């Protein structure tokens, strides 16, 4: 369920792209929609969990800054850079976590499920760093070489699919280190 909630601003963005009859105006309506839905994502998350997710705040700030530039300058290039900037920030956070603190980001997020040695967590973390860099570059390529509508579909479905496949690969790689969960009631 959280996976779908994470992508609801992107899906709302895609839907809004095709509302205006004038396709050139679709990107500007979609930009307004993603600003509002990114903010709503923070509010809804807070009401449900009583905590604010840092990733939602980061994404909202990037959307607000680049979305505002898109709307004020009437230039869609700014909003098209949003995924790349977010991916590169995630890449820097993962890279920084390798040197700051006891555990890197993947170990903090998945360490309760996998009992992997430090060299494995290092490889997983570096693979995330490289993955986010390449995904950001891929977004730039699609944004500058394809129609805006094609980029919007890639932004929602392409990136979602690529993320799913990558995470599946990470889990498969880590599966040999999976922590056995004892079933209650069985002796």
Could you explain the architecture of this structure?
The protein is mostly helical and 187 residues long. It folds into two domains: 1-80; 84-179, no CATH class. 77% of the residues lie in helices and 0% in strands. The protein is built from eight helices and no strands. Helix 1 runs antiparallel to helix 2 and helix 5 runs antiparallel to helix 7. The longest helix has 28 residues, at 118-145. The mean pLDDT is 91.
Layout of secondary structure:
Layout: H1 2-17, H2 23-49, H3 54-73, H4 77-80, H5 82-97, H6 105-110, H7 118-145, H8 148-174
Helix pairs in contact: 1-2, 1-8, 2-3, 5-7, 7-8
What is the gist of this entry?
The protein is mostly helical and 187 residues long.
Which features characterize this protein?
187 residues; mainly alpha; 2 domains
Distance from first to last alpha carbon: 33 Å
Count of DSSP H/I helices:
8
Radius of gyration: 19 Å
Question: What is the average per-residue confidence, as pLDDT, rounded to a whole number?
Answer: 91
How many beta strands in the DSSP annotation?
0
Structural class: mainly alpha
Task: Label the overall shape.
Answer: globular
Helix-strand topology string: HHHHHHHH
């Amino acid at each position: 369920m959280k996976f779908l909630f994470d992508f609801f601003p992107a899906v709302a963005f895609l839907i809004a792209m095709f509302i205006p009859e004038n396709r050139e105006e679709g990107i500007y309506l979609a930009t307004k929609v993603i600003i509002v839905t990114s903010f709503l994502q923070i509010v809804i998350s807070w009401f449900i969990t009583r905590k604010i997710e840092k990733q939602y705040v980061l994404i909202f700030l990037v959307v607000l800054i680049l979305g505002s530039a898109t709307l004020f300058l009437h230039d869609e290039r700014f909003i098209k850079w949003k995924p790349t900037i977010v991916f590169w920030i995630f890449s820097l956070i993962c890279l920084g976590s390798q040197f700051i603190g006891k555990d890197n980001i993947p170990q903090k997020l998945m360490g309760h499920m996998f009992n992997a040695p430090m060299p494995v967590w290092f490889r997983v973390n570096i693979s995330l760093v490289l993955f986010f860099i390449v995904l950001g570059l891929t977004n730039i390529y699609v944004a500058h070489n394809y129609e805006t509508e094609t980029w919007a579909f890639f932004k929602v479905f392409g990136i979602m699919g690529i993320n799913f496949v990558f995470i599946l690969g990470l889990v498969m790689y880590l599966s040999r280190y999976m922590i056995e969960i004892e079933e209650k009631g069985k002796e």
